[in-house]
Amino acid sequence: MFDPHHPAEGSLEAPLTVLAGLQRQGLVRHIGLSHVTPTQVAEGRKLREIVCVQNQYNLAHRDDDALIDSLARDGIAYVPFFPLGGFSPLQSSTLSSVARRLGATPMQVALAWLLRRAPNILLIPGTSSVAHLRENLASAGLVLTEDALVELEGIGSETRGR
């Protein structure tokens, strides 16, 4: 996959034309888009087959809700960057409370929520140790109750539109 990170605002026609040429030469197998708007994704899909989109998305940063749903309907992967908040890790009393009740860490709950959010979400959380990797992997087996999901949804509602 070739992912043109940080495309310029506006049309994607020029970079996708170059990538299409590289694809024809066998130098690029798949094309993904990163840091793009829904309008750019729609344009890109008219020009080339897009296999994934990578934008910022997590419990608190939910601007791509509609885009994720649209991509899921069409079988296109969505890879959230900063799934745990990035340089400002997710901190929420609601998240901490849900995690305590489930016997998990807040970060495990945040990753479990992403995995449950849509079938097309692929996670690539960073890790700094084997213990951290195990913690991340355990999130896949975490069962979020309906009550927990309602509470977690509130985190996104609090921050939407900021």
Automatic annotation (TrEMBL):
Residues 3-153 form the NADP-dependent oxidoreductase domain. This is Oxidoreductase. SUPFAM superfamilies: NAD(P)-linked oxidoreductase (SSF51430). Gene3D superfamilies: NADP-dependent oxidoreductase domain (3.20.20.100). InterPro entries: NAD(P)_OxRdtase_dom_sf, NADP_OxRdtase_dom. The lineage of its organism: Bacteria, Pseudomonadati, Myxococcota, Myxococcia, Myxococcales.
